[in-house]
Amino acid sequence: MSNKTEDAITSLLDRVKTLGIKEADVLAVESLSINVKSRLAKMEGIEQKESIDIGLRVIDNGKQLTISTTDSSKESILELTERAASMVHSVPVDEFCGLPDKSLFSINNTDLDLVDKTQLGHEELLESAIMAEESAMSVKGITNTEGASSSFSKSRMKLVTSNGFSNSYERTEFSTTVSVIAGNDTKMERDYEYQSATHLKDIDKPNKIGLIAGKRAVSRLNSKKIKSDTVPIIFDNRISGGLIAILAGSISGQSISRGTSFLKDKLGKKLFKKNINIIDDPLRIRGHRSRIFDGEGVKSKKIKLVSNGELTSWLLDCRSARQLNLETTAHASRSTNSPPSPAPSNIYLSTGNISKDDLVKSIKNGFYVTEMMGMSFNQVNGDYSRGATGFWIQNGEISFPVSEVTIAGNMLNMYRTLTPSSDLKFTTGIDSPTVMIENMTVAGL
């Protein structure tokens, strides 16, 4: 943190104390990001942003308020504290808000290797984007491009509380994406590849990223429509993490305490097959969402959310834990302008014992999904439907591309019949291997 930001943090906490506020914390984030876009091998745009965001949370007599600023001057800090102290008395009472107990605070400074000292400027990022785009365009059948982009960012986050916690961590991120079009006239298909990592060497070279995007787009040409049916569906590992994201949202302490989740009565019960484990690991080295402490300063820890098919834990911050008369699981997440709420860190479905190819071979007629559009999910009853594209499976083989269909099911039934393959990759922070669901509705013609 810069000296100016450190001074602002100290001034905020000192000032709210003199104003009689009983509890407070300050979250400060300093960040730099550069994104360079190309199209047809020419620069299309550069976005560069350097920012300092400071958020103040004040808690007084069961009332909580969060307020933020991007101005760390003394005048702004004084004005921010005055407004917070004045406004907090106007918000409703929340008996469950409050800072964590000191005993929960993290004193863990384990190096999670989240910082790559490589720094890429405009020229290097443009070169990367153009290389990815040209590589994609070199694939036979590619006729146009939606462009490519490469980005670099670094940030540092510091959290300080009025009851003694003070710690920070840094991270970097590199990404490259390219999207291209195959075919002509009314028979065109698009596809893409996107990769990101905390360290540059953990993503593929731009030319490989481009080839992946190009080959994917070409493979979708001459797609067919299919009749409606109920069949096994395979979710490619590009998209299967979405099923885990739904689980994470549905076991969030907020949803459980409100009684608005279809999983509200499922703790300790079997949701998946016996060999299924779902893990949240905030301490993964170089993880996309790794952190040594959560958004309230509570020590991070690796936990099993699903163990041998059984749901074993909610995702809890301090507030939702108090509502449910449980202990926080250190899953508070927050921004500078919002209070903490539960969210996963690096959550993943553990790898299975069958290869993706063998999953396909096991299906006589089915649908292999590679991309989904839109979203209809009812968290209260678990009903799920999405637009989808992919490939039809016949007699254990990928047969032809499919587009313009809708897939539907209920998440309880989907989880109950889910089989994971062995191709787990950690690519987003919410990850899953390719998975098969035994029976879902495919709405086509």
What does this structure look like?
With 445 residues, the protein is α+β, with helices and mostly antiparallel strands. The protein has 3 domains: 3-32 and 44-104, 2-Layer Sandwich (PmbA/TldD fold), CATH 3.30.2290; 122-219, 2-Layer Sandwich (PmbA/TldD fold); 223-445, no CATH class. Helix content is 21%, strand content 38%. It is built from 9 helices and 19 strands. The chain has helices at 3-18, 74-87, 122-137, 206-219, 241-250, 253-258, 318-323, 356-361, 411-416; strands at residues 23-39, 42-60, 63-69, 142-161, 166-184, 187-197, 229-235, 278-280, 303-307, 310-311, 332-333, 341-342, 347-349, 365-377, 383-394, 397-410, 418-420, 430-431, 435-443. Strands 3-2-1-4-5-6 form a 6-stranded antiparallel sheet. It has a 5-stranded mixed beta barrel with strand order 7-14-15-16-19. β1 (23-39) and β2 (42-60) form a beta hairpin. The longest helix is centred in the N-terminal third of the chain and has 16 residues, at 3-18. The relative contact order is 0.13. The model has no long low-confidence stretch (mean pLDDT 96).
Throw out a few tags for this protein.
3 domains, 21% helix, PmbA/TldD fold, 5-stranded mixed β-barrel, 9 helices, 6-stranded antiparallel beta sheet, single chain, globular, 19 strands, alpha+beta, 445 residues
Mean pLDDT: 96
| Spans of at least 5 consecutive residues with low confidence | none
Quick one: how many beta strands? Answer: 19
From the N-terminal CA to the C-terminal CA, the straight-line distance is: 58 Å
Q: What oligomeric assembly is this protein in?
A: single chain
Question: Nearest-angstrom radius of gyration?
Answer: 24 Å
Helices and strands, in N-to-C order? HEEEHHEEEHEHHEEEHEEEHEEEHEEE
Question: Which word captures the global form?
Answer: globular
Structural class: alpha+beta
Percent helix among the residues?
A: 10-25%
**What is the number of helical segments per DSSP (H or I, 4+ residues)?**
9
Portion in beta strands: 35-45%
Q: Give a short account of the largest sheet.
A: 6 strands, antiparallel
